[in-house]
Amino acid sequence: MGRRAESLRVLAVCLALVVIPAVTLVACSGRGGPNEPFDCTNSGEHPTELACTGLYSSWSSKDVATDVLPFTPGFAAWSDGMAKQRWLALPAGTKIDTTNPDEWVFPVGTRVWKEFRRGEQRVETRFAMKLASGEWLRTTYRWSADGESAAAELTTGETDVGGTGYEIPALATCATCHRGRADGVLGFDAVTMAAPGATGLTLAELTRRDLLSAPLAAPVVPGDAQAVAALGWLHASCGTACHNASPKAAAHFTGLNMRLDVATLAAGVEGTNAYRTAVNVPSNFSAPNGAHVRIAAGEPDASTLVFRASYRDRSGQYQMPPLGTHSVDPQGVATLRAWVGSLTRPL
C-alpha cells in the first residue's frame, strides 16, 4: 500500500495515530457509547462524520481540541447572514510558507474548519485537509436539526436549508472558488489577518508563535476608513477567490482584479488592483439599468459592480458573487455605494 493510501486508511479509521507526519486525529469510540457515539471505523477514504476530523476533543461537550486554533479574518465574505467560526490546525513543528506574501503555502497535514450558524444553531461545518502538495480533501458536514447531536457528511448540497433560503454548496462546486488561490485556502492571508477586526491567529499572533517561514510586515490597506472598508469588502467578496491574477481563478479572463496584493498597497488607493482595473473602466457587462462602467467614480447607480452586488437571481446571470449567496449583503453594498459615491468624477 502506498504512503498516500495508507494515510487515507488511517484517517478513515479515526485512531489517535499519526496520519501524515505530526498530524493526529481524535480517537472515536464505537457507536452506542454515552459520550462519543460515532463509529469512525467505516468512514471510507475520509471521515463521514465531523466527530472524526479532530476538531473536537470531546463530541458530547464540543470542546475544541487544544491543537486547533480559532481565527477570524478582518475582512470576510458574506454568507447570507450566517454567523461563522473558523479554526486551523498545523502539524506540530511546521510553518506556513510565506515566501510569496500573497500566496501562502500550507504544510501537508494542515486542517481547516469553518462552521456556519443561524443564530446559535449550527447548520454546517466545512472541512479541508491537505493530503499532498496541491491536493486537498474537502467536504462539508450537515448538522442535525438540533445543531448538536450529529454532523454527517453531505456532498450533494442542500439548496434551501430549513426553508431559510440558505444553501449548503455541493462538493463539486468548491473548486470554482478555491482554485483562485495557489494553495486553495480562502480567507486566511496576510491582508485579512492583519486587518483591524482580525482575531485569534492574526498575522501578529502567527509571527509570535513562529508559524511563518519568514516574518511579514503587517500590510496596511490604504485610504480613509471608508476606502479601507470598501477595498477590504471587494478583496474578501470578489478578489480572494475569483477576480485576481491567478490563471486558475474563475474570473481571471475578465482582467478585473480586486485582490489586495501586498506589494500594491504602498501606492495608495489608486495603486490598488481594484482601483486600477475597475474605476472608470468600461465593463464587459451591460446592466439592465444601463450601467456600463465597472465603477463610475461618484456614481454608484452607473456602476456595474454596484448593480451586480445589489442583485440576486437563482440563475446567477446578473448577481455577484455568482455562487454561494441568495440574499444581498446590505452592509457590504452600503459600504461599496458610499465609497464609489465619494470618488472624484473624471473631468
Q: What topology emerges from the helices and strands here?
A:
Blueprint: H1 3-13, E1 56-58, E2 63-64, E3 69-72, E4 83-89, E5 111-118, E6 121-132, E7 135-143, E8 151-153, H2 174-178, H3 190-194, E9 199-200, H4 203-208, H5 225-239, H6 273-278, H7 304-309, H8 330-342
Antiparallel strand pairs: 1-2, 3-4, 3-9, 4-5, 5-6, 6-7, 7-8
Output the keywords.
347 residues, alpha+beta, 7-stranded antiparallel β-sheet, two-stranded antiparallel ribbon, globular, disordered N terminus
Task: Give your account of this protein's structure.
The chain is built from eight helices and nine strands. The strands form two sheets. A seven-stranded antiparallel sheet has the order 8-7-6-5-4-3-9, with no helix packed on it. Strands 1-2 form a two-stranded antiparallel ribbon. Helix 5 (225-239) packs across helix 8. The longest helix is centred in the C-terminal third of the chain and has 15 residues, at 225-239. It has 347 residues and is an alpha+beta fold. The model is unreliable at 1-35 (pLDDT under 50). It has helices at 3-13, 174-178, 190-194, 203-208, 225-239, 273-278, 304-309, 330-342, and strands at 56-58, 63-64, 69-72, 83-89, 111-118, 121-132, 135-143, 151-153, 199-200.
